[in-house]
Design brief:
8 helices; 0% strand
Length: 222
């Protein structure tokens, strides 16, 4: 088992595990390198989520294009469901068919080499075989951006947008709370002011009435 994935799994680092498995099929569309790790992590609470319909699944292989593949990966970040992961494994066999065939051919070659040298007990020969296996990647580097790099950039942009949306939502809630508190303060001040004005008017009315009564009594006594 991959030690890094096991470390994330044992520490409960769900976010890192999701990012690894989102990109895992680009690394190995056969999923052989990640099968054991994925089955190990599936039981971790919080990794797999109930499936939510986002980009509708298409069973028409003609629609399994780069655009469809990128949409599935972005959806997997938003809703990491086992159903979506299973569908992506099927799509990878078609969309990344060339890479699948190359990986299978390399594995077959390596297995053939290992089987051919297994009976030999000569340590010198074994060392030589070990030095040439696995074969270095001599594929010429293309100057243009690859599909994997483009998808990685798109995923990073999607992650940045999600983080920006969360931050904006938190800031908006903070402003709304501040506005509500200010409104409550103003209403309390207005209520207190109205209560004070009512009390003053009532006191003045009582004083005027008392003076009037006193004047009437003085006139009567005369």
């Amino acid at each position: 088992m991959n030690t890094e994935i096991k470390k994330f799994a044992d520490s409960g680092d769900i976010k890192s595990l999701k990012y690894i498995f989102v990109d895992s099929l680009d690394v190995d569309p056969t999923f052989v390198r990640y099968e054991e790790e994925y089955n190990y992590c599936k039981s971790i609470p919080g990794l797999l989520e109930p499936h939510v319909e986002l980009t509708p699944f298409s069973e028409n292989k003609a629609n399994w294009t780069e655009e469809y593949w990128t949409s599935l990966k972005m959806d997997l970040i938003k809703n990491f469901s086992d159903k979506r992961m299973s569908h992506m494994r099927d799509v990878a066999q078609v969309f990344l068919a060339d890479k699948v065939q190359r990986i299978l051919a390399e594995r077959a070659t390596n297995n053939t080499i290992q089987q051919s040298v297994a009976p030999k007990a000569d340590p010198v020969q074994t060392e030589k075989v070990t030095n040439i296996t696995p074969k270095p990647d001599v594929t010429p580097k293309k100057p243009s951006i690859s599909k994997a790099e483009l998808q990685e950039r798109q995923l990073k942009e999607e992650r940045r947008k999600l983080e920006a949306e969360n931050k904006a939502h938190q800031e908006r809630e903070a402003r709304e709370r501040a506005a509500r508190m200010e409104q409550q303060r103003r209403m309390q001040a207005q209520t207190q002011s109205q209560t004070g004005d009512g009390f003053s008017k009532k006191a003045i009315g009582i004083a005027v009435a008392a003076v009037t009564v006193a004047v009437v009594l003085i006139l009567l006594l005369k």
